[in-house]
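Protocol step 4 of 5: obtain the predicted structure for the target chain.
Materials: sequence only (see below). No template structures provided, no constraints applied. The aim of this step is simply to have a reference model before the mutagenesis design in step 5. Sequence pasted as it appears in the construct record:
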Amino acid sequence: MSSSSSSSSSSQPKPLRIGIIGFGPFAQFLAKTMMKQGHFIRVTSRSDYSELCTNLGILFFRDMGAFLESDNEVIMISTSILSLSRVVESIPFHCLKRPTLFVDVLSVKEHPKDVLLRIMPEECDLLCTHPMFGPESGKDGWTDLTFMYDMVRIRDQPLCSSFLHIFSSEGCKMLEMTCQEHDRLAAQSQFLTHTIGRILSEMEVEPTPIDTKGFQKLVQVKESSVKDSFDLFSGLFIHNRFARQQMKNLEVALEKTKEKLQERSKELQDPVISKF
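Step 4 output (structure tokens):
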């Protein structure tokens, strides 16, 4: 954990005014814990979540300009990966009342970093993050679950530390890492896992009465992967420049495995007498 997150966990920062752009299941999941901690949440989204927000005690804005004028200290972007550029380009940044900390929580990191640095006002700060958990894995709390972050452009250190405290105070493992390193590692882990799960789904793999423990884990990978939208899977491929190489590596590995099996089959069909 960096010194910033360590110092933030030693004291209780004041409640934050956090605006959220995009209020799908993942943003709702994060918002509930933020509200539990006493933070004030405002939301805007393409879909109408006014009734849900009323039930949760959250202000919902249909108008993006009014949302920005509501004086948020932090604006968290939780759109889909594929819609990020369109959403950010549509934000009327001139409506902001103050220099604001923008935080993205997308599953890829270089893409939102590049888009936000290119479009948002220079006086705004940027924190790129990836909570490596979700509504299912985090349903019993966030203790020991990994929270990756990159302080891309931070001048208001206390505000950034207060936001990071949301996660460190819940017991997350705070991992500071560059966006590039995150995407390189995520292509090997997250994208590869989703790809295997999607392949198993295409094969219509289902449990059998004689499942081994290994096969049960494969079925779990398939089931967890297809719970996420195909848009997410597509975004992991399209907007992580390391994912294409992983796809190639998977294809090459499959071909090598097939070749080895074919060679062994030929050996057994036409055995060669060993010389001793």
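Step 4 remarks: Residues 1-10 have pLDDT under 50 and may be disordered. The first helix runs from residue 3 to 9.
Proceed to step 5.
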